[in-house]
Design brief:
mainly alpha; 3 helices; extended
Length: 79
């Protein structure tokens, strides 16, 4: 597949600033803490029928998409 001649960026940065941001992003992604979180998420795995809910004690719990994104019936306007 050929790549597009257009680069779609969310921020309008100069080439120098974009290169610096890319270097910072890669450095942040390669920290030991970030690698451990990524590995944990890959072990748990995402499924199309449920979401992973972050609990107050820092754990993860698999819940329905409807409940997780709707704040368990309370709505999201007052979060």
């Amino acid at each position: 597949m050929k790549s597009s001649p257009f680069t779609l960026t969310k921020q309008k940065l100069s080439k120098k600033a974009a290169a610096a941001k890319k270097a910072r992003d890669i450095a942040a992604a390669k920290t030991p803490a970030r690698r451990a979180k990524k590995a944990e998420n890959q072990r748990i795995g995402q499924r199309s029928d449920s979401d992973l809910h972050h609990t107050k004690n820092g754990g993860l719990k698999r819940v329905s998409i409807k409940n997780n994104r709707g704040n368990f019936g309370k709505g999201t306007r007052n979060e």
